Structure formats: C-alpha cells, structure tokens
TrEMBL record:
Residues 1-11 have a biased composition (Acidic residues). It comes from the Eukaryota. Residues 337-351 have a biased composition (Low complexity). This is Lamina-associated polypeptide 2 alpha C-terminal domain-containing protein. Residues 1-40, 299-361 are annotated as: Disordered. Residues 15-24 have a biased composition (Polar residues). Residues 317-336 have a biased composition (Basic residues).
Amino acid sequence: MEDGEQEDQPEGVEQQLTSSSSPSEAVVGTEVSGPLPINHRAHQELLRRVAQNLGLPAEETVEQEDPLVDILSPKSPSSIALPLIKTIQSNYKTVWQTPASSAPTAKGVEHKYFAPSKGCEFLFCHPSPCSLVVSAVNERQRYGQQAPAPKAKEAKRLDLFGRKVYSSGGLQLRIVNQQAIFNRHNFNSWAVMGKFKDSLPQGSQQEFTALVDEGKGVAKTSLQASLDSADTAARTVPSGVVMRRSAWLQESGLPPEVQNTLQDLPFEGSGLFSDQTDARLHSLKDSRAMLKSLGMHTPATQRKPFKPEPPPQRQSQPHHRHESYRRRGRDNRRWHNNNNNNAPGQNQGQRKPQPGTKPGF
C-alpha cells in the first residue's frame, strides 16, 4: 500500500498504537520462534510522544537506501533514537573500569527476581561436566580424578569466562520474564479503565478514551521489548555453554571438525555436553581407533567386567573327576572294613550264635 493511500484512511489512536500481533499471542508466544513483529510506524510515533512528554532530546535516524531499488518498497519512516539515561551511563562506566575481575551480576540483584526451581533448574546452577570428553581430559590431566574444570591455565580461564556469561544470561531471563508479566498486567489494568467511560461527562469521554489507548499502547510496546530482551538472554545462555565446551574440547585433542560438531549439539539444560555426545563419538568412522589413540576410554562405570567363558569340553570334566574321587574313597573304606572283619581275633566275641546251637563254655 502506498503512502498516499495510507494518509487517506482515518487512523485512530488504537490503530496507531496496536502491534501487528494480538496481546494474547504476545503473552503466549508459542507459535513463533523469535520476537513477534511490531508495527514500526506506530512504534516510532509512540517513542516520539514519550520523548516529548519526558523532555528527552530524541533524534531521528534515516536509513540510507539504494536509489536504484528504492522504487520497489514504500519509503519507511525514520527511526527515533532515545538517549541513554544518566543512571544507566553511570552504571556501565563503573563496571567497565575492571572488565576482567567484575562479577557477572551486581550484588543483591539475583534476590529480586525469582522463578520456580522445578523445571528451571538451569537458572540456578551451572551445568555439570559430563560425557567421554570430560572423562578423557580428567584421566589425562588429573590421573583419573574428576574435576569441574580443565587443569590447563588457558582452558580453565575460558571455562570461568563461560560460567560468567551463563550466569548473566540466566539472570536476564528471570528479569525479562518478570517484566513481561508486569507489562501484561499493566495492559489489563488500562483495559479495565475503559468501563468508566460512560460515567464521565460527554465532553471528557473522548479525551479519556485517548488516555486509555495511550496506556495500552505503552504496555504493548513494553511487552514487546521484554520479548526482545528474552530472545537476547536466551542466546546468551548457550554462548556460555559453548565457551565451556570449547575449554574441554581443546584439551581433548579431537580433530577440529569433530569439535565443531560436538559444540553445536543441543543443550538440554542439565549436563554441559549433550546427551548425544557419546553416541556421536562412537558413530564416527574408525571411532574405536581414534578414541584409543586419544586416550579416551569408556569409564569403568559404563563398562561391564570381563568374564571369560570356559571351553565347552571342560565344563563336565570337574564333575566326573570329583565323582571318581568319591567312588575311589568309598572303595577304600569298604576294603579297610573287610580287612578288619577278617583279621584273626577281631570281633569274635561280638558274633551272634547261629540258630539251634548253644554257646560253648
């Protein structure tokens, strides 16, 4: 639609402030994978009014377009750039004084934003090292002792940096989640205000409606900003995971192409490496020879003890041999008993008299 056609149509306050997505879609966010699109023109108009209300020196920036292809799309409105407030400027200037030793989050901030621990365990603890990669590095560097980080200095430093990035991303997710909830609550509050319109004088109803629509528009824009921040935070968390994976993979000695494959496997939230890591290593061509040459052996907890099976022909031999020993023992005892009974002067007084005879005196 051309600009002239847009100007001919009457635009109310609601049409200017409403995003291209409905509020319910913005809250649920299950049908899209990224931030929801917004009405760019309405968004810029809202920023201009906010800057005027707060007395902020807003700047208009116009993107330079190729003059040869500008006829293919309508001219886009200029973008409003709002200045950073003094509190934010003071904050990042202070943190940037010690970039290497600064903590990933400010003290006390984490206690302001909470989330249920069930189902969101990854927000409160770092993923534990796992897989054959970690076992191989620990066996090589620490002689089989398990450790939470590689022993090498550079790898250990990279692992620590990855932990900082991970903690920062987790806190951002908790903050923007609370912001999104507050912004939707703000929108609902403005929507409820509409029922008081009929209670006002006729001359004030139009102004009251414009005020309510402005509040609803600000709530929608703030909700969209929360979703944009959530998308950024969601990308920050796996960045920290990849850093820690790289620290272990660099010490494993695996080929670079294998390291890149293992780094890009999904992150499930509990273990540092994906559950598919070990299976992917064993599925590689000549995986057994490669793992053996790198010193990567299956841990004892995952390997069944070796039990050699005896040859089939020897299974029945111990039984017959023991039976022959028992038979020979019975024959020997029987032979000794017979000899004792036949010896002269032995057991004569114990013989029973034959029937019909009298014992001699």
